[in-house]
Amino acid sequence: MTQFPRLRPVADTGVLLEFGDRIDDDIHAQVLAMDRAVLDANINGVTELIPAYAALLVQYDPLITNYVSLCEQLMPLLGTNQAGLTAGKYWKIPVCYDTEFAPDLARLADALGQSQDFVTQTHASVIYKVYMYGFAPGYAYLGGVPDTIQHPRKSAPTMGVAPKSVMVAGSQALITTVTMPSGWWVIGRSGINPLQANSDNPFMFAIGDTVGFEPMSRADFDKYGQG
């Protein structure tokens, strides 16, 4: 049985701190607490911190420090108190579930044995948490898809999925930012692209933020929802 937390080398420039092996709020809180602790410690040679669902990647300059030395400085920080973590910002994102924007909705509903209205209403009924970024620029992975609409990703990816597509797969949700292939189920279109390329802060969401989806009719979406 794997014991957590554990530290592992990543090539000769990184230390991976693993706190678990599943999507879980308590595990992610440990990741964020460690992220803050390492940042506050200002360890010489650390170049970047990359938090994920259940792990934190600490990147370092091998000309300044090394794996053994860095682990010796990281170990005392494990178990950092989470009490100081602040709540993230809440974002309300307009989404249109119109057929044109939801090419996979009917197929997903059939696979779940539910109506399309049930899928969309359930999708919009909960608050999602931003756990990590990955795969493509601005791809913020959201956890919290209700059990009743969870379904594994498609057996083959769809090419050319448009930006601002709202997708689900398993317990995760996501808003696409660029045109990419994907095996996730596209069930709507967001009124906002989370990747603000011309901004000083191009990633709109911060890790730890929460997101709610606000359904809009096609007419309202065309008029107000496309940002």
Q: Mean of the pLDDT scores? A: 93
Q: What is the H level of CATH, i.e. the homologous superfamily of the largest domain?
A: Cyclophilin-like
| Rg from Cα | 19 Å
Oligomer: single chain
Task: Give the SSE layout.
Elements: E1 6-10, E2 14-18, H1 25-41, E3 46-51, E4 55-60, H2 67-74, E5 90-96, H3 105-112, H4 116-123, E6 127-133, E7 140-143, E8 158-161, E9 165-169, E10 172-175, E11 180-182, E12 185-190, E13 210-215, H5 218-225
Parallel strand pairs: 5-13
Antiparallel strand pairs: 1-2, 2-4, 3-4, 5-12, 6-7, 6-13, 7-10, 8-11, 9-10, 9-12
Helix pairs in contact: 3-4
Report on this structure.
The protein has helices spanning 25-41, 67-74, 105-112, 116-123, 218-225; strands at 6-10, 14-18, 46-51, 55-60, 90-96, 127-133, 140-143, 158-161, 165-169, 172-175, 180-182, 185-190, 210-215. With 227 residues, it is of the alpha+beta class. The chain has two domains: 6-77, Gyrase A, domain 2; 90-225, Beta Barrel (Cyclophilin). Strands 5-12-9-10-7-6-13 form a seven-stranded mixed beta barrel. It has a four-stranded antiparallel β-sheet with strand order 1-2-4-3, with helices on one face. It has a two-stranded antiparallel sheet with strand order 8-11. Strand 1 and strand 2 (14-18) form a beta hairpin. It is elongated. The mean pLDDT is 93.
